Amino acid sequence: QVTFVESGGGSVQAGGSLRLSCAASGYTVSGKCMAWFRQAPGKAREGAAGIFEDDSVYYTTSTRGRFRISRDNAANTLNLVIDSLNPGDTGVYHCMEVRCGTWIPDRRVSWGQGTQVAVSS
User: Fold this and answer.
1) CB 20 within 8 A of CB 8
2) Are residues 9 and 93 in contact, defined by beta-carbon separation less than 8 angstroms?
3) What is the pLDDT of residues 53-86, one digit of tens each?
C-alpha cells in the first residue's frame, strides 16, 4: 500500500521560508513524475510544483521563482522549499504522483493528510 506523509508546515510570517517534505512508503520516489499540490481554505486543490522522472521541474506562474521542488532518493522523500511566503500561500500542502508534466493525479494512489501552512501578514 502506497502512503505519503507530508510534514514541515507551520505558521510563519510573510517573507519567511518553509521546507516541506513528503515521505513515501510502499513507493519509490526516484524516477517518478510527482507534484506538490495546495488547497487554500474554501478553494479547490491546485498544483504548485512538479518534477519529471528526469528531475526537471515545472511550476505555475504564481509559484515560479519562489518554490523549489526536489527529491532525495536516499531518503525516499519529495521536498518543497517555499521562499518569500505570502498569505496567498496559506493552505494544506500534499504530494502526489502525477501524469508527467501535468497536475493530473494518479488515481490509484490515495492522498495523504497533508501539511498545513499558515502565513500571516
Assistant:
1) yes
2) yes
3) 999 999 999 999 999 999 999 999 999 999 999 9
Q: Which residue has the cell 502565513?
A: 119
Strand partners, 119: 12
**Mean pLDDT of the residues in the chain:** 96
Task: Name the phi and psi angles at 106, rounded to 5.
Answer: -75, 115
Residue pair 16/120 in contact by the 8 Å Cβ criterion:
no
* Confidence label for 116 from pLDDT (cuts 50, 70 and 90): very high
Bridge partners (DSSP) listed for residue 82: 18, 67
Task: Kindly report the backbone phi and psi dihedral angles of residue 89, in degrees, each rounded to the nearest multiple of 5, phi listed first.
Answer: -85, -5
| Residues contacting residue 1 through CB under 8 Å, at least 6 positions apart | 26
From residue 50, alpha-carbon distances to 16, 42, 104, 119 in Å are 22, 23, 11, 22
- For residue 10, pLDDT over 80 is answered with yes
